[in-house]
Amino acid sequence: MDKRFDKVIKEINRGKKFLAVSHVSPEGDAIGSLLGITLALRSIGKDVTAYLEDPVPKMFDFLPGAETIVHTLDGAGAFDATFAVDCGQKERLGKGFIALKGPGSIINIDHHATNDRFGDVNVIEPDASAAGELVYDLIKAASINMTLDIATNLYVAIHTDTGSFRYSSATADAFMKAGELVRIGVSPWEISRRIYENYPARKYVLLGMVLPTLDIINLDGGKSIAILAVTLEMFRKAGAEKDLADGFVNYARGIEGVEVGMLLREISANEYKVSMRSKGGVDVAEVTGYFGGGGHRNAAGCTLKGSLEDVKARIMGVIKEKTFATEKA
Q1: I need a surface site. Which of 157, 257, 278, 301 has the fewest CB within 10 A?
Q2: 47-51, strands of its sheet edge to edge
Q3: Strand 271-278 and strand 215-218: pairing?
Q4: Alpha carbon distance 138, 6 (integer Å)
Q5: pTM score > 0.70 for this model?
């Protein structure tokens, strides 16, 4: 038996009413992991509430169980335990969860190296490609039947967090588990079609406004940083929701000679959500950590207040000081 989950399985065995939650602005791993653990616990007779503060992005609304996710905990009462998946800091679970009076024991299952271990029980594996991998391991350790609906959610979690198995996080374990999920009946083609070939036209209208903001900053040593920005006015003009900007940061990282790509998304007046992606030479989790954010070495984020130019300048100052200065030393 996988000893990492001994305490978790004890919580499952003695509890009846559970909450499953993940971070604000959820993406594939957050939603897939959330629904994976939710459906697994429901399959053994547990009463499980699946909660996200923000709506499920349209590209993931096909996932089995997505229609059961709630977005308020008003009147929810007390829980025996809460499963928090794919979230490094408790506050990122949202205001609704923070205000909850009776979450029970918090079981923190995550793969972010910057996780602050906020749970009563913590299973943190930075080498895992996705939180979905850890939910897979838990289901196996607890001897819960891996149904096709559960497998579909976990495949999406692993598939999306490895960038369709393109990123350095695509380890042998990730491929092995994905292969097992396919053997259960998951269709890689159907998943890819649903996620990557089903965008509304307004996503591309928004992208057309964002690409002209490209700013490439050349640094010493032949390295460059590429920055894109998306404003509230762009969202308004395109008639686009905030999740339609997901993935835009990869246009910045994908440029030849660029070491780090950034997307600065305006979330309120003089406040920006910063998404950073590295090709491996810069630890962007260290950079975002300076501003109270976190993530992985090659993918991280934070939130900063200030004008667009001020935010750019502050981030670039830290990159130059903490990263490139270290390389020269």
Answers
A1: 257
A2: 47-51, 17-21, 81-85, 105-110, 121-124
A3: unpaired
A4: 9
A5: yes
Res. 328: pLDDT tops 60: no
Residues 6+ away with beta carbon under 8 Å from 17: 46, 47, 48, 49, 77, 78, 79, 80
Task: Report the CATH number of the 201-328 domain.
Answer: 3.10.310.30
Q: Residue 136 pLDDT > 60, yes or no? A: yes
User: How many CA atoms, within 13 angstroms, populate the side-chain half-sphere of residue 72?
Assistant: 2
User: What is the strand order of the sheet 224-230 is part of?
Assistant: 215-218, 224-230, 258-268, 271-278, 299-305, 294-295
| C-beta separation of 116 from 91 below 8 A | no
CATH fold of 3-196 reads inorganic pyrophosphatase (n-terminal core) (3.90.1640)
The residues spanned by each domain of the chain are 3-196, 201-328
Distance CA 296, CA 301 (A): 9
Task: Tell me how far apart the alpha carbons of residues 176 and 181 are, in angstroms, rounded to a whole number.
Answer: 9
Band of pLDDT at residue 77, cut at 50, 70 and 90: confident
Give the start-end residues of each E strand in the chain: 17-21, 47-51, 81-85, 105-110, 121-124, 215-218, 224-230, 258-268, 271-278, 294-295, 299-305
Q: What percent of the chain has pLDDT over 70?
A: 97
Token pair recorded at residue 200: 């509304």
Q: Which tens digits make up the pLDDT trace of 208-263?
A: 999 999 999 998 777 899 999 999 999 999 999 999 999 999 999 999 999 999 99
Q: Which of the 8 DSSP states describes residue 70?
A: B
pLDDT at 167 > cutoff 70: yes
Is the four-CA dihedral 69, 73, 78, 80 of positive or negative sign? Answer: positive
